[in-house]
Design brief:
- With about 180 residues, this protein is an alpha/beta fold.
- Helix content is about 40%, strand content about 20%.
- It contains 7 helices and 6 strands.
- Strands 1-2-3-4-5-6 form a 6-stranded parallel sheet.
- α2 packs parallel to α3 and α3 (about 75-85) crosses α4.
- The longest helix is centred in the middle third of the chain and has 18 residues, at about 100-115.
- About 40% of the residues are buried.
């Protein structure tokens, strides 16, 4: 089994923004997340998937792990998974997870894509994002749902919206 990643910084880059993709490897991030989700307009999603074949090796040049943030609903997620695995992504960022069954279903789709591409089944890892109030109570089960899942976080904007709060940047004040 491969060692777990050690990421201190993750950089989001819209997969369709060539000017960002071309410079992403120079930014010093431990992982670069090529975004197919919120940073890409609905009409541009097919082009974003197609761009992964060129973008993945380009952003990997500096030694960063390459992640791809996929969409939900399931039909789009399946297309995103297929394109990301074919392009050689190391990690998929699974958005709007509903529960452990959702993680296992996506893992099954990933395994099918790996097998179809000749990639060792289990190679592609995942970061999970919980983005709804209903999924909060299932976080532990989600975290334990599949060995591919190496990190779990909350999607702040969508979660805040679902909770009826106004999304805002986090502000910290340090006192000495």
């Amino acid at each position: 089994m491969r060692p777990l990643p050690n990421w201190r910084s993750l950089l989001y880059v819209p997969a369709t923004r060539e000017s960002f993709v071309v410079r992403a490897h120079t930014r010093g991030a431990d992982a670069i997340i090529l975004d197919l989700e919120d940073a890409v307009a609905p009409a541009e999603k097919p082009a974003a998937r197609a761009a992964l074949a060129d973008a993945v090796p380009r952003v990997r040049q500096g030694g960063a792990d390459v992640c791809v943030r996929i969409n939900r609903p399931l039909r789009m997620a399946a297309q995103d998974i297929e394109a990301a695995v074919a392009a050689g992504a190391d990690v998929l960022v699974l958005t709007k997870l509903m529960g452990p069954e959702h993680v296992r279903l996506l893992s099954e789709l990933i395994a099918e894509s790996e097998a179809a591409q000749g990639v060792a089944v289990g190679h592609t890892r995942c970061i999970g994002l919980v983005e709804t109030a209903d999924a909060l109570s299932a976080m532990e089960a989600i975290a334990r749902a599949d060995p591919r899942l190496v990190a779990l976080g909350a999607g702040g904007e969508d979660l805040a919206t679902d909770l009826g709060a106004e999304p805002s940047p986090m502000r910290c004040t340090c006192r000495r």
